[in-house]
Design goal:
alpha+beta, six-stranded mixed sheet, 11 helices, six-stranded antiparallel sheet, about 40% helix, single chain
């Protein structure tokens, strides 16, 4: 069975089986293979099975993906290859030991299982409250908890992980984490967990208990919340039937960034002072992890913003140069076009005059003059045609260098894709409208932050190219060929994927490597400037921090695969 092996032969060796569908590798928990290591991106790489072969694809990772020491974007891997992701090496083999986890279930290096926690708790309970074994067990738990709270920029996942650990360690019915909004200074509920399902409109915590812990910046234990004088028979406590509760501020240093709240609604005096001390220690580690995640996210956002500023400065400079060049070229070009039109008109007038004087001229000389005038008219027409094409190229250059502001906003990706397909089909000429179009839009995709008009241009351009390729194939094969276009969208955790596939001419490998180069085109003169795919890739990769790649087999099919992050990784950026 195809397998990825981490630390082969070592004490921490782990094997991950690879099935017959694509899997992703990264440090985020939603990855099929989760390795919580700082050198990895949240989504580092993807392994794609294809007819018994396997390919590894780099997902725009920060440290790159390497196969046998060579950096790759997409490469077939074979048994015995070493794949380097960040600082980690993994061995790919087709006869390795299978993993005990299903291939689609998130897996992690050195995971802390429920069994380990339960065992530690049982050992502590046997020692009795405050005894050596119990204290030692709790210390071990805190150590294991620290391993489970690595630096991550996914705060929501981290908060839910913290609550899951609390429910494994303490006898808790409900738990909530509230964080202080840096802008408003108010507490906001960020994660909740309950032992039993509750109605959506039912409160999950006591506002009075939370306010008490936050106002005094102290950890508080309420053995019997209803009778505790500090709460003065608070309405929220009585209404929610809270019997016992604890609330601890989240303080990575001196400032309180939030609170951790837990309660039990079945019995009083469930929690002890030892439980509170343990929760304080636990919350201290959790607060550091949350703060680190917040700082990591801010650093990532600022890095994207700095990259954008540098890119905008370069493009502004390029735009000025291109505008100057375009101005200098357009002046003589306009004269050429104008004089070509005038010359064509004079040639036509001269031809009419010769026909009027035909009786007075030698027939042979007249025929020769008419032939020369015909060549002159053809030359003027070619000059005009190429002059207009040059003007179109100049306009494309200006469009390529200019980046008009296109603010990102949540949009319906499926609607944007469908509208682009309909526009492309409505504007099709030469039989493309007869193509059979198959669409499969994933309804699970929520709002995606993007510049909808810019992304609409991308999808429209790709579909236009697909229709053009199918038209060419239709001309070659006639009625025996049925054009078919497939457009699919899919939810990929924190990303979305769009696949546009046609059964047209396909792309030779020698051409595929140059497809995204500016001004490279395979279309006849006058039918394309070679800027469509270059602009599209810039919009996707630089404007949205996504990916755009092409898969093709000559004579069979071409498929464009576009991925976009659901949320912006930085402040709204100007788009291409």
């Amino acid at each position: 069975m195809p397998t990825l092996i981490y630390n082969p032969g070592g004490p921490e060796e782990q094997a991950f089986s690879i099935g017959d569908i694509a899997i992703t590798i990264g440090r985020a928990e939603d990855q099929a293979i989760c390795i919580p290591h700082r050198s990895l991106s949240r989504s580092q790489a993807r392994i794609e099975p294809s007819e018994g072969r396997f390919f590894i694809v780099d997902l725009q990772s920060k440290n790159g993906t390497f196969v046998n020491g060579a950096r790759v974007q997409r490469k077939e891997i074979r048994s015995g290859d070493t794949i380097t992701l960040g600082d980690l090496d993994l061995l790919f083999t087709t006869d390795g030991a299978p993993s005990s986890e299903p291939s689609l279930r998130p897996q992690a290096i050195r995971p802390l299982t429920h069994t380990v926690i339960s065992k530690l708790m049982q050992e502590g309970e046997r020692g009795g409250p405050g005894s050596g074994p119990r204290a030692e067990a709790r210390l071990q738990i805190l150590i294991e908890v620290a391993k489970l709270l690595p630096v991550s920029d996914d705060i929501n996942t981290l908060l839910h992980k913290i609550l899951d650990l609390i429910f494994q360690i303490l006898d808790v019915d409900r738990g909530a984490i509230l964080l202080v909004n840096e802008t408003t200074g108010k507490l906001e509920r960020r994660a909740v967990k309950t032992s039993l399902p509750l109605p959506d409109d039912e409160p999950i915590f006591s506002q009075n208990i939370v306010d008490y812990a936050l106002r005094k910046s102290v950890a508080a234990l309420f053995a019997d919340a209803v009778l505790d004088p500090r709460l003065d028979a608070a309405r929220s406590v009585v209404a929610q039937s809270i019997r016992a509760s604890m609330c601890v501020p989240l303080k990575p240093k001196d400032d309180v960034i939030g609170v951790l709240y837990v309660d039990n609604r079945r019995a009083t005096h469930v929690f002890t002072d030892a439980d509170l001390e343990f929760l304080v220690a636990f919350a201290s580690q959790a607060a550091v992890a949350v703060k680190n995640a917040s700082l990591y996210r801010r650093l990532e956002r600022e890095t994207v913003e700095r990259m954008q500023l540098v890119l905008d400065a370069k493009l502004a400079s390029l735009s000025g140069v291109v505008a100057g060049i375009a101005h200098e070229i357009r002046n003589p070009l306009n004269f050429m076009n104008n004089f070509a039109d005038i010359a064509a008109g004079l040639a036509e007038d001269l031809s009419e005059e010769l026909r009027a004087q035909g009786e007075r001229l030698d027939p042979g000389a007249l025929a020769q003059i008419e032939e020369n005038l015909g060549h002159l008219r053809d030359s003027m027409a070619r000059i005009t045609e190429h002059g207009r094409r040059a003007d179109a190229i100049i306009k494309g250059m200006l469009q390529h260098a200019r980046r008009p502001a296109g603010e990102r906003a949540p949009a319906d990706l499926n609607a944007v894709v469908d509208e682009s397909v309909r526009h492309a089909r409505a504007g099709a000429q030469g039989g493309e409208a007869d193509a059979h179009i198959v669409t499969a839009y994933d309804p699970a995709i929520g709002p995606v932050e993007m510049a909808a008009l810019d992304m609409g241009r991308v999808f429209l351009n790709v579909v236009d190219n697909a229709l053009y390729a199918m038209r060419q194939k239709k001309r070659e094969r006639g009625a025996s060929y049925t054009p078919e276009l497939s457009v699919r969208t899919a939810d990929r955790a924190d990303q979305v994927e769009v696949r546009i596939r046609d059964n047209g001419m396909g792309i030779p490998k020698t051409i595929a490597v140059r497809m995204f180069e500016p001004f490279f085109t395979t279309k006849p003169p006058g039918e394309g400037t070679g800027l469509g795919l270059s602009l599209s890739r810039e919009i996707v990769v630089q404007g949205h921090q996504g990916t755009m790649r092409v898969e093709s087999e000559e004579g069979e099919y071409t498929e464009f695969v576009i991925t976009l992050p659901k949320e912006s990784r930085g402040a709204p950026l100007s788009q291409a």
